[in-house]
Amino acid sequence: xxxxxxxxxxVQITPVIMGTWQAGKKGWVGVExxxxxxxxxxxxxAGITTFDTAxxxxxxYSEQLVGKALSNKRDRVVxxxxxxxxxxxxxxxxxACERSLKxxxxxxxxxxxxxWPAGAFNSEVVPVSETxxxxxxxxxxxxxxxxxxxxxxxxQLAEALEYAQIDSLQPPYSLFWRQLEQDAMPLxxxxxxxxxxxxxxxxxxxxGKFGLDHRFEEGDIRAKNKLFQGDLYQxxxxxxxxxxxxxxxxxxxxxxxxxxxxxxxPQANAIVGARNVEQAVENAKAGSLEISAADxxxxxxxxxxxxxxxxxxxxxxxxxx
Length: 321
Fold this sequence. Notes:
37% helix, 8-stranded parallel barrel, 10 strands, alpha/beta, single chain
């Protein structure tokens, strides 16, 4: 898989990135530690060198599993993690970074990101300048190599760029979730900020594995996902039916077709989770799948039959539901 430069940093990432939210287990069901560790190692062998986690995923448990899986392969991998919205004061950022380093069994983090803007989830409002001052210091000390932000709007990204070299934005972005294109994407293109899209498969919806009557188990975060509810879910199923012949034409899965579309967009890279070896190896294939310009346009138009009906709220989940 070809590598790409992360923003204006010297970090090289793969356009398909393995996400490890599920490894933290909180908000997920049916995830086994050993299977996820094996999946990470299989992803690396299949060509995915970049892994994304966060301190809040299982309160550090995801980071610990990433460390368990990859610490003895550290020279081959790029590790990204995030500091949560409740830890954005200067000293809190430094402390959170130290915890993450310990969890990950490493002495440096390739990409350190602000997970949510200050004030999210009723957290204290801390000036982004203070948070980024801490991150700049960590970068000078060699504890982190690059700085990123996650879930920032275009104006919030613009403000952050005043205080630090921001090399990535991690937003929700997929064929079925595209508010980013009207918000922060133009700024990312202008300033050479890499887009590291999470929920690149719309939490599995774009794999086509969920039928009209699907119901999630108790505790599964996807039950709160707007795309799995009501008319949007119906429209998504119709769109998937239109995408299937294109996937068959390229002898690929629906999921990999959606990933290939995403990483063909300006500045865009895709975070994709995996519960087991089979999923990890399958996801990696998307990194070398080339779709013609005409078919990319066709896929784009099919996606809009869903996204034209999504509300403007960039948060994908109805957490209060």
